[in-house]
Amino acid sequence: MRTRALFLLVLSTTQVRSQIPPEHERAHRGNCVRIDRPALGGGMEVGCGYVMAREGDSLIIATARHVVQDTNSRATPPQGEVRFHGVEEALAYRVLHLDAKDLAFVKVRRPGHDTPLPLVFRDAPLDVRLWLISARREHKTLPTGFDGRMLYRSSSTPYFWAAIPGTAQGDSGSMILSREGIVGMLLGGSSELECLAIGYVMDRLNSIVMPVGK
């Protein structure tokens, strides 16, 4: 009994320590969106996205390609909608770019969106405390250093790999955060998840968005 009580105390303490700081969560949740679109076989596909840039009164949102288009499909992506934190209204989006690396950008018109754009931490150490911000349940936490296991990282690819317990369907397209800012994007499923380095996301974004004044 004493051993069980000690285990529960340690587990509880770990959960408390792993909670994303409220001010850190507030700084990001305004840019985190839920994405819904019709699935090829019927029903709805649900995922997440994150506001990465503004163009006039429109916002450009990064997400996983399979969130807006069925895997291996060459058909025109179906029409879908995004929902922002605390907002009931669903806004139609337009697919702006489909990338070969399971990355997509969509554009939605939303005048007056005043949440600060994210701080990107391109060369973040991945052995620090990291969190997942997901529109599926507002936000969720990740254990320190991805459960203490960095499985693979390669400078020759735009990905890093990690074991992330606790993710679920609908988290694709979520952003991975450190205290310094965004470090990556979640793309895959199962217990070993594919994560796209934020530097690659930003480089692709910069290649499709016309710089201001040009």
Overview of this protein structure:
The structure is a single chain. The chain is an alpha+beta fold. It has five helices and 13 strands. A seven-stranded antiparallel β-sheet has the order 8-7-11-12-13-10-9. It has a six-stranded antiparallel β-barrel with strand order 1-2-3-6-5-4. β9 and β10 form a beta hairpin. The longest helix has 17 residues, at 2-18. It is globular. The relative contact order is 0.18. The model is unreliable at 1-18 and 143-152 (pLDDT under 50).
Annotation field: number of helices: 5
Assign an overall shape.
Answer: globular
Encode the helix/strand succession as letters.
HHEEEHEEEEEHEEEEEH
Q: Please state how the strands of the largest beta sheet are arranged side by side.
A: 8-7-11-12-13-10-9
Mean pLDDT: 76
Major sheet = 7 strands, antiparallel
Helix % is 10-25%
Gyration radius, in Å = 18 Å
Portion in strands: 25-35%
